[in-house]
From TrEMBL:
Descriptive protein name: Copper resistance protein A
InterPro entries assigned: Cu-oxidase-like_N, Cu-oxidase_2nd, Cu-oxidase_C, Cu-oxidase_fam, Cu_oxidase_CS, Cu_oxidase_Cu_BS, Cupredoxin, CuRO_3_CopA
Pfam families registered for this protein in UniProt: Cu-oxidase, Cu-oxidase_2, Cu-oxidase_3
CDD domains noted in UniProt: CuRO_1_CumA_like, CuRO_2_CopA_like_1, CuRO_3_CopA
Length: 597
């Protein structure tokens, strides 16, 4: 098991909190020229719950004026027609309201955000048609202070329903943004206000929890400032990493999911029964040290891009765009197979390596990087050429400082690091681990030409920091305590049938792993698959490896390994637990922790 750390600072200006204003009617959703989205497991299950006509979540009008009416609760029949389990805390229940009241009421920060189809400039003459927040990639950061109340109104101008999940925040359950479980979908042409207290400082982000939408351009950083910030630094750089395919040669995330779901043999003959499912041929070919020496591009044959682990195949029958199934991507750091998807581009702050985003500072400046991996299927090995990084936080919570030249970041993870800027022009490289490609940004403190897209700092080939070397800072360390409850979960499935799941059971919204408020809960994950997985728990942070371990909400488990995570059950509701590989989650690797009444 290992930890991944990240730090960053976005070049785009933050979304400035505004004073509350009256809601405006959204314009008609613009037409997206991409192929129509496939019906995913999550979308179908959410529709089933909404169609059941269950009791609506209680109205809670935010400062933007949008009520929660129309976002149904999860208390009626499930998509399968079976009654949802009774005896659990409801997302809009009194226990949730009491927990929110205990967080206090701080100043309200009102923000408006629009999800819309847009033409996105990736740099070097590459423009793609996708979906984004405000037509920008990444979306503009939202910045608040711990203790504030955030009231963000999302207007949906997309051609399909959407949602917003606040990744890493311990917020009220009915604002967690999981359609079919904690709310109803936000329908096209409507809007919804997420209103909640923001309790903890740190680096977070937000994205949809609706099908494969996160693997389009729908993501943005959320920075929660500490009113008693203990770190001293001169500048801050928010760095958002991504793997990109939407709108390239006709590709969409939904088409990729459809291709993967057919399995390695082209057919989907049922589930593997939880014994790995087989990756025969998926990792064929030589391994990769992760330094990305083969170039900056991926599959797809775009000019100026080197080959990925395997070039894209001809388009599979009945799909749009070339095949995006990854072949031959391996990494020792990830325990073998590095990923499922061959992306044509890898991005830092929405830009390709040929036209990198640039951050300016002064020589000698102490710079705080807040790094977010918003990718769908890619771990990144990150290094800043000519510099050592001091890791100060992971997933929003402080750790005992550790110095490193490189760090590994799984999907959904965040790391904060401090660097003392040298004099000159320096490459910040995020190598797509095992995929023989990389993303690039530039730190500029003086004159000089920007580094070439093919640059690979020597730090990438040195030791890579992992979770085993991280310890929680004393003020946030989980106190030693015997677990009251142990929840054991086995990761199952494989590429042969693309039947990723927990305990051999694909996700349905009526699943519950029961916990009780006040318990110390130990999660024990056993990875019976031949693939690594970034596991994410909503609404809580856990101590990785038990008390004393770093506080995280997302952690990587390698093939054949066991991961232990302890947390205090102090935030009542129904909380998702899932793999943060977009395609594994949509295949069924999700479940629910439910608080008993």
């Amino acid at each position: 098991m290992f930890a991944i750390m990240r730090a960053s600072r976005t070049p785009s200006s933050p979304s400035t909190p505004s004073t509350p204003s009256a809601p405006t009617a959204p314009s008609a959703p613009p037409l997206d020229r991409a192929p129509a989205p496939a019906a995913t497991r999550r979308a179908l299950l959410g529709v089933g719950l909404a169609a059941a006509g269950t009791a609506a979540l209680s109205a809670c009008t935010g400062s933007g004026g949008s009520a929660h009416g129309g976002h149904g609760g999860p208390h009626g029949p499930s998509a399968s027609g079976a009654p949802a389990p009774q005896g659990f805390v409801a997302p809009d229940g009194p226990e949730v309201a009491a927990a929110e009241a205990a967080r206090g009421k701080g100043p309200v920060r009102a923000v408006r955000l629009t999800a819309t189809a847009a033409a996105l400039d990736l740099g070097a003459g590459r423009t793609v048609r996708s979906w984004a927040y405000g037509g920008e990639l990444p979306g503009k950061e939202v910045r608040v202070t711990a203790g504030d109340t955030l009231a963000l109104t999302l207007a949906n101008h997309l051609p399909q329903a959407t949602s917003l999940h606040w990744h890493g925040l311990a917020l009220r359950n009915d604002m967690d943004g999981v359609p079919g479980l904690t709310q109803r979908d936000i329908a096209p042409g409507t809007e919804f206000t997420y209103r909640f207290a923001v309790p903890h400082p740190g680096t977070y982000w937000f994205h949809p929890h609706s099908g494969t939408q996160q693997d389009r351009g729908l993501y943005a950083p959320l920075i929660v400032e500490d009113p008693k910030e203990p770190l001293a630094y001169d500048a801050e750089w928010v760095v958002v990493l991504d793997d990109w395919l939407d709108g390239v040669d006709g590709s969409t995330p939904d088409a990729v999911l459809a291709e993967l779901s057919r399995g390695m043999g082209g057919g989907h003959a049922g589930h593997s029964g939880g014994h790995g499912g087989g990756h025969e041929g998926h990792a064929a070919g030589g391994g990769d040290s992760g330094d990305g020496t083969a170039g900056t591009g991926g599959a797809g044959g775009h000019a100026g891009h080197g080959p990925a682990a395997s070039p894209a195949s001809p388009a599979p029958a009945g799909s749009g765009g070339p095949s995006r199934m990854m072949m031959g991507a391996t990494s020792d750091l990830l325990g073998g197979d590095a990923g499922d998807v061959a992306y044509p581009y890898y991005l830092v702050n929405g830009r390709t390596a040929e036209a990198p985003a640039e951050f300016r500072a002064k020589p000698g400046d102490r710079v705080r990087l807040r790094i977010v991996n918003a990718g769908g299927d890619t771990a990144f090995r990150v290094a800043l050429g000519g510099h050592r990084m001091t890791v100060t936080h992971t997933d929003g919570f402080p750790v005992r400082p550790v110095e490193t030249g490189a760090l590994l970041i799984g999907m959904g993870e965040r790391y904060d690091v401090l660097v003392t800027a040298g004099d000159g022009v320096f490459p910040l490289v995020a190598a797509a681990e095992g995929k023989k490609a990389a993303a690039l940004a530039v730190l500029r403190t003086g004159r000089g030409a920007a580094p070439a897209a093919s640059v690979r700092p020597k730090e990438l080939a040195g030791p890579v920091l992992d979770a085993a070397r991280l310890k929680a800072a004393e003020p946030v360390a989980l106190a030693a305590r015997k677990p009251d409850r142990t929840v054991r979960i086995r990761l199952t499935g494989g590429m042969a049938r693309y039947d990723w799941a927990f305990d051999g059971r694909p996700y349905t919204p009526d699943q519950r792993h029961p916990v009780k408020a006040g318990e110390r809960v130990r999660l024990v994950f056993t990875n019976a698959t031949e693939m690594w997985h970034p596991l994410h728990l909503h609404g809580h942070t856990f101590a990785l490896g038990g008390p004393g371990g770093p506080r995280k909400d997302t952690a990587v488990i390698l093939p054949g390994e066991t991961l232990t995570a302890d947390f205090d059950a102090d935030n009542p509701g129904l909380w998702m637990l899932h793999c943060h590989n977009v395609y594994h989650a949509e295949a069924g690797m999700m479940t629910v922790l439910g608080y008993r009444r």
